[in-house]
Specification:
The protein is mainly α. The protein folds into two domains: about 90 residues; about 30 residues, no CATH class. About 70% of the residues lie in helices and about 0% in strands. It contains seven helices and no strands. The protein is flat and about 50 Å long.
Length: about 130
C-alpha cells in the first residue's frame, strides 16, 4: 500500500538508475541487517513497542528467531529492483518479446487467483500440522 503512494515520485526516477541503486542498496542492507553491526535493537531503552517496531524494519531483538520473517529492510529494495526492472524492460519494448507468448493455462490460473490461494492454503496447512502432531 505504501508503494501506491510512492508511485508518482518513483516514476520520475530513470528505470536504469532505479534498478541499479535499488539492487545495490538491497545487497548492502542485506549483509548489514544480518550482522546488525551497531546492535541497534540491543542498545535501546527497554521499551517493548519500540523494539517491536524495529523488528518490522529489520532490527529484531537478540535471540529472535523465525522461519517466516522478512523485515522491511532490506527486502523493500529487492521489491524496488523488480519495480524498476519492469519499467526498464517496458521502456525498451521487451516485455511482450520476453513474456507475451507465455500462455500456460495452469500458471495463468495461479497468477490470477494467487490471493485466494494464499488465503486458503494457510488454514489447510494448520489443519494438516494439527492432525500430524
Amino acid at each position: 500500500l505504501i508503494w501506491i503512494l510512492l508511485d508518482k515520485v518513483l516514476k520520475k526516477i530513470p528505470a536504469g538508475v532505479g534498478v541499479s541503486v535499488s539492487f545495490v542498496l538491497f545487497l548492502i542492507l542485506r549483509s548489514w541487517t544480518k550482522q546488525d553491526p551497531i546492535q541497534l535493537s540491543d542498545n535501546l531503552p527497554n521499551v517493548t513497542w519500540l523494539k517491536s517496531v524495529l523488528a518490522y524494519i529489520g532490527f529484531p531483538q537478540a535471540g529472535f528467531s523465525s522461519t517466516d520473517y522478512f523485515p522491511l529492510l532490506p527486502w523493500i529494495f529487492l521489491f524496488a529492483t523488480g519495480y524498476f526492472l519492469y519499467s526498464f524492460l517496458q521502456e525498451k519494448g521487451l516485455i511482450n518479446r520476453l513474456f507475451g507468448k507465455w500462455k500456460v493455462p495452469g500458471i495463468n490460473f495461479l497468477g490470477k487467483h494467487s490471493l485466494i490461494i494464499y488465503m486458503i492454503h494457510q488454514p489447510i496447512c494448520y489443519v494438516v500440522a494439527f492432525l500430524v502432531s
